Amino acid sequence: MPMELLQEAARLAQGPDPEAARPLVARLLAAHPGDADVLTVAGIAAQRSGGLDEALGHFAAALAADPDNPARLGNHAVALKQAGRFDAAIAALERALALRPGAPVTLANLGSCLIAADRPKEAEAPLRAAGA
After folding, report:
1. How far apart, in whole angstroms, are the C-alpha atoms of residue 67 and residue 87?
2. Are residues 83 and 43 in the same domain?
3. Which of 36, 85, 87, 104 has a beta carbon 3.0–4.6 Å from 65's, enabling a disulfide?
4. Do residue 6 and residue 22 come from a single domain?
5. How confident is the model at residue 132 (pLDDT cuts 50, 70, 90)?
């Protein structure tokens, strides 16, 4: 797969107009439907464009293709949190921390998710560990 295309799709997906990534993401998905990196960029583009269900599908597929990747777990967890699926998000973040202990972003996301799940006392430790 041409890395330049994937990098351009990622840049567009994370930019001010994530919809601009959609045509390139569609091309990449058609050519490489099971590629975890392509699926992740597709998830980011969908999530940032308001397509939460679509994003969840792409992130889940990326995770299925690369199940022990803490960053993919984190992406999926953030989307799960946005969908109000706090228990699943917390489980994904805890798994990500088991794979990459002490990761500040993951700790901060876990703390945020625990607060959203109305578990503020449990959120204190990961937030302190994250330096938040």
Report:
1. 18
2. no
3. 36
4. yes
5. low
